[in-house]
């Protein structure tokens, strides 16, 4: 017989025993969507990465489940009727998505994918499985309900709209950089607006979580859980920033599933009348991970821009929009690269290794989206440090150079930055409010941008229409 005091002791432990039940390691979490890419078989390169065979271990994607993903150096576009679902479990499970048309029978279709093991490079060497399932054959522009996981654990039910592949579609974007796990001030507003259906896609222009690798990558987990309420509903398209650099960008490379075969470092895709290019400015700053990455990206950019500028392509996707983390220009009062004349990302004067300003100008890039500075800044059309307005009265009507927007104030633990009190002539509008940018590519000639201040409860504090009768290099003259 158990003595009374022993029984009491056991009973007092009961709550602890309940709390001690381990979490369900087969439960999907950190669910997010992205557009996949389609291989157009243009530019075979023998070996994209210098670090593939070195440290840390590379992500190995399953070519069958992730179209085009293992094919090197090719040109990718959005694939009508497809979507990639990515999520995490801490035990190995199957990778399944069950889905159906919204309003129809739930889960009447299913698709299988594969999981890759990601071992974080921190002290604990934490392991997680990143699952990827590519849904294909979706009805363009139709809405679907889905959940993901396996028979030993399912996610909540989410919904999304399949890629509308019409070139007359007018997609609506939210875009920002520098959103952290701590002080993510704009997140609640972005979540609500996304769930209200205000956006077709989100662009996160580098610097996630602050930082994903910290606390043995638990900060990365927590951040990916935080953005699930956006990213499980609309494609969450990304590029890397400096806060992803630890362990050779491995948290970034493993957790996201962007088009192409570059582990989400650089790629392009199409939506409506826009060709959108995502790139890594970090190849200019972390040369220890391979100077050849800089040249490989540059060569890929050149080929991609050349292809996008073929008359038959530019006729249907006239807008070329780039996104990269560190700006070419900015007027903040820190000592960042963009505050210097002829920054590393620009690099006009001593073009070895080659910078991007001349390349983008030559191929008629219309709009360049940046972050990194924890502020919002809109530039007048600018090339080679000179203002190139369309006209005095209408600077953004037929501009004579690319338009630059810097939007890195979504919210993070580093707070906002300060501006230099004496900006150069190309600085058109500046704000240190927390916030983010909205963009709509309305049609072949009209593109709208506006800046939302979260500090001012969602007030639009800046807006412009970029209007172009002509695109491409010849439009500058
Ligand atoms: Fe940054």
From TrEMBL:
Gene3D superfamilies (alphabetical): 3.60.21.10, Purple acid phosphatase-like, N-terminal
InterPro entries, per the entry: Calcineurin-like_PHP (IPR004843), Metallo-depent_PP-like (IPR029052), MPP_PAP (IPR041792), PAPs_C (IPR025733), PAPs_N (IPR015914), Purple_acid_Pase-like_N (IPR008963)
Record-annotated Purple acid phosphatase N-terminal domain positions: 76-161
Keywords, alphabetical: Glycoprotein, Hydrolase, Signal
EC number(s) reported in the record: 3.1.3.2
Pfam hit, one: Pur_ac_phosph_N
Residue intervals of the Purple acid phosphatase C-terminal domain: 401-463
Extent of the signal sequence: 1-20
Reaction it catalyzes: a phosphate monoester + H2O = an alcohol + phosphate
Catalytic EC class: hydrolase
Entry annotated with the keyword Nucleotide-binding: no
Domain Calcineurin-like phosphoesterase: 172-376
Record-level Gene Ontology MF annotations: acid phosphatase activity; metal ion binding
SUPFAM superfamilies, alphabetized: Metallo-dependent phosphatases, Purple acid phosphatase, N-terminal domain
Keyword Ion transport: no
Domain of life where this protein originates: Eukaryota
Similarity field: Belongs to the metallophosphoesterase superfamily. Purple acid phosphatase family.
Name of the molecule in the record: Purple acid phosphatase
Organism: Sparus aurata
